[in-house]
Amino acid sequence: MNIHLVQDEKFINKSIERFETYYPNSNIFFVYVNRLFDGKFKYCKSSNNVIPIKFNYYNCFNIILNQTKDNDNIFIHSLNSVRANHVMRLKKNKDVKLFWIFYGADLYGRLNKSRKYELFDYPILVKSSFSLKFRSFISKKILGFLNNSEDDFIKSFDYFCFWNYNDYLLLKKHYKIRAKFKFFRYYDAPIGLEKEFNFTNKKGYLMVNQSASKNGNHITILKRLDTLKLGQNIKQIFVPLSYGVDFVKNSVLEYGSMRFGEKFHPIINYIDKKKYFELLNHIDVAIFGQRRQEGGNNIFYLLSIGAKVFLRRDNNMLKYLKDKGYFVFEFENDLNSVNDIYNFTFEEKKMNRKLVLAEFSQYKIDQTYKRLLNFES
Asked: Does the pLDDT at position 99 exceed 70?
């Protein structure tokens, strides 16, 4: 049996669908619900093998333990202290294999807190909101989970599951681990990759980041753009801010409106996924300010439609893409004048699209899931 410990998030339904397709009737999903008091799903669809874990259950661990047998596979979908604590307690009672399905923040956040990896250009952006402080208080004080649960998990888990091997190397650089790497990506793929695309159908739009993430370092990007004197070729600067952190959104709105006037086009209201990817079809240039991998589906889709993409030097997704043969550019060294925005050939665009389509092909998806539980690979 595959035991999955997941958060109640929008994309988990696709994960459930994928695992049930490739490993039918072999999965139980324990979903840690966000709604502390009623314990109901906000995003996940109910079914017999999708079980809510409510924080007001005193015996929530026993619910998981009773469903777990020796030789089961335990999947942590994004590591945190709650799930790590439960898994390590399971490990004491059962002979199980431990899989970490890596998201990003579950490693980079740890490294940043321990000052082993710098994420932020401006320290003011690391301020904790009241809600973050409250959630931290809940997890540490009320739930009483051990502070070293994540460290114990990292020392003892079996497989690191992600698509970027460089993040596995980063983990090995900072922690002594015995875990092996397994290629894994596909909860979901960017929408619309299968459609034919006309690279010439662009409207002079530039995009900065994909959300109001505190990792976005938006002001760094906007300051650089302000020095380039963009002229008339760039008609609008799109900045998605419909989800993320409020203090990031507010600071970006203030700076962007002040420096770019009518060219500045923040996206504040939620747009459904299909419409959002249709909007991306008009983007000529996209710049991402994260110093770690984030917004992968956005980046791959933009590459597939011929957008020129700039990533930060210390974002190891830049290395991943360059090693794969993509034409992708470094923000620090490759964006020094307005001409650097526009120089991107038709052949480079075609190559990027070819590589993305291969990366997200049905064959690649099939192979990824079939090999996930092949322990000889």
From this structure: yes
Contact 325, 355 (CB under 8 A): yes
Residue 126 has pLDDT above 50, yes or no: no
Contacts of 146 (CB under 8 A, 6+ apart): 81, 85
Q: One-letter amino acid identity for 194? A: E
CATH number of 2-187+363-372, picked from 1.10.10, 3.40.50, 1.20.1300, 3.20.20: 3.40.50
CA distance 83 to 139: 11
Q: Do the beta carbons of residue 2 and residue 27 sit within 8 Å? A: yes
pTM of the model: 0.91
- 100 strand-pairing partners: 76, 160
**Range 76-105 average pLDDT:** 94
- Does residue 157 contact residue 179 with C-beta atoms inside 8 Å? yes
Distance CA 168, CA 258 (A): 41
Domain boundaries, given as residue ranges, for the chain: 2-187+363-372, 205-359
- In whole angstroms, give the CA distance from residue 247 to residue 122: 13
Contact present, 209 and 225 (Cβ < 8 Å): no
Q: Tell me how far apart the alpha carbons of residues 132 and 143 are, in angstroms, rounded to a whole number.
A: 16
CATH number of 205-359: 3.40.50.2000
Task: Check residue 71 and give left, alpha or beta (phi > 0: left; psi -120 to 50: alpha).
Answer: left
The answer to whether domain 2-187+363-372 and domain 205-359 are alike in fold is: yes
Are the CB atoms for 27 and 16 separated by under 8 Å? yes
